[in-house]
Each structure stands twice: as structure tokens, then as C-alpha cells.
Amino acid sequence: MQVTLQPVKSEVKETLLTPRFYTTDFKEMAELDISKNQHEFEAILEEFRADYNRQHFIRDEEFNQSWDSLDKETRSLFIEFLERSCTAEFSGFLLYKELSRRLQATSPIVAECFLLMSRDEARHAGFLNKAMGDFNLSLDLGFLTKTRKYTFFAPKFIFYATYLSEKIGYWRYITIYRHLEQHPQHRIYPIFRFFENWCQDENRHGDFFAALLKSQPQFLNNFASRLWCRFFLLSVFATMYLNDFQRSSFYNAIGLDSRQYDMQVIRKTNESASRIFPISLDVDNPYFFQYLDKCAKYNSLLVQYSNESNSSIAQKIPAYCSLTLNLIKLFLMTPIASQNTEIIIK
């Protein structure tokens, strides 16, 4: 994971939408009982041990060329894409590595699953950081480890958020891969060729967190859990939508319409989540994406104000209020009850 390329970037600008580093209640995590689902965890562990992508993340000759032909805006947005992705993968590596260490004594099967997932995340982060090196930049991951602020999430929130993060990552990667497979003229950089196998790592990680959730029915089968599932679904979808709205030029550069891409990813992730969560969001309601569009518009206005040296809090308040109001409208939309009966474990 050590990097030697220059210049080395040690800081990542943080906003509300920036990938975060997480910590949790390790004692509570260690006390979780998975015995009712142990066979499922053993099967998942065997898949992790197989390490299907052991030989996948190897750079080939296509990387050995200049990328100066990319226009300035596309280059800048692509570097930001690599940076954000690397930060998110490295965040997962740190959390999973620490969980594997803390759970070894009490839950060795789960601990080894976390260890092997941390292996995958480290591999992804290293591959992304090497890609940044092709643009004469790299992240100082050791510095990020020591200086980045950590957000505390209770175990159940880690499960909700990370399950969704892994599943939405799968749908993002596979959607881009299939698009570029059909339109290779838009593949501006060879890393996209790796997305098909890459997203299978994300999918396996998501299946592991689905198993953890199913092993803890108290996280799925009561009124509070339905509210939390609703909250995390909306949070993950809105974060992606607002981020991608600001970076539509990047998606245009690879031949995608960012709005249509996000709509497809949200629909697929929502469908996947409905197999585990007790509810899913009503993404077919015509107001759902209309409200998201309004949120994205007001968020872009706030970004614009933040980039202006003479902007004031008074200017931002109406945009903040409008953004918050539309998020509330989204949250209050009636969700769809899941038909999945596996979540109720006697």
C-alpha cells in the first residue's frame, strides 16, 4: 500500500457528501449471535477464501501510455472519481481490518470474513491509487489513516449503510461496465475493463452484510428498523444523486447521461435491498426523482455559493431550507412493504 509517486496528496477536501471513515461499538459487535445462520456464513467464507480475483487486478500494457489527450475538465473529474473511490475503498479496508482483529476471539468465522474483505478493499484502493499515479498524483493513505476524522456508527447502522454501499457499488460498476462493453469508444481509461470482476467483490461483500442482518432479526422486524432502513436507503440514494449531478460532465465523457444512469442504479439497488430490508422506497412514484432533482439543484447552488469568496450565510439559508424540505418530502413518501419472509427469524 506504500506509494512513492509524486506529488503525494495527503488531504481530501471534506463535505457532507465525501466518503467517510467509520468506527463502531466493537464490544456490541463481538456479542452478536450468528449461530442460527452459521451455515450461511461458512458458505460465504469459502467464497472469500477462494479469492476469485487474486490474479485480476494486474495492470497490463494498455496502462503504459500518456493520458494527456483527455481534456482538462474530463481529466479533473476523472481524477476526482479515482480519489473518491480510493478513499471509500480504503475506508472499508480500515474498518474491516479492525473488525477482524476485534472479533477473532469471540466470532472467528465472522472475523475471517472481515479479514478477507479487508484484503479485497486494500487491493481495490491500491489499484485505484496506481491509476492516480498515471495522472502524476497519489493519495498518502498512511497520512489519511492517522489524520482523518472517524464517524461513530452503532453496529446496526454499520450493517445498513455498508450493505447498501456494497450493493450500490455493484450496480454502479456493472452498469458502467456493460455500457462501455457495448460502446468501447467511450472507454477513456483501461480501469473500466476491470469493473465486471471488481463488482463481484462488492456483491459478495453485500451478501455477507445481508447475512449479518438476517442473523439479527431485531435489526429488521420492528417499527424502528423500518424507519432506519428507509432513512439509509434515502441517504445512500440522495448522496449518489447529488454527487453525480455535480459531475455530469464526467458521465458524458464516457457516453452516459448521469441522471438516467443514477435512476437505473437506484432502481436496481432498491430492488436488491427489498430482498433483505423490510421495506423499499417507492422509486416508481413520479415525484420521487422530481424531488431528487430539486435536491440536486439546491445542492449545486450551495456548492456555487461555497466557491464564491463573497457569499454569505444569509444567501445559503433559502437553499438549505429548500434542500431539507425536499429531503423530508422524500422520506415521508409511503414506502413499499417487502415480500421477503426470510427477515423474520424465530
TrEMBL record:
Superkingdom per UniProt: Eukaryota
Keyword tags: Chlorophyll biosynthesis, Chloroplast, Iron, Metal-binding, NADP, Oxidoreductase, Photosynthesis, Plastid
Pathways per UniProt: Porphyrin-containing compound metabolism; chlorophyll biosynthesis (light-independent)
GO terms for biological process, alphabetical: light-independent chlorophyll biosynthetic process; photosynthesis
Ranges of residues in domain Rubrerythrin diiron-binding: 80-213
Membrane-crossing segments per the record: none
HAMAP family noted in UniProt: AcsF
Function comment: Catalyzes the formation of the isocyclic ring in chlorophyll biosynthesis. Mediates the cyclase reaction, which results in the formation of divinylprotochlorophyllide (Pchlide) characteristic of all chlorophylls from magnesium-protoporphyrin IX 13-monomethyl ester (MgPMME).
Protein name: Magnesium-protoporphyrin IX monomethyl ester [oxidative] cyclase
Species per Swiss-Prot/TrEMBL record: Scinaia undulata
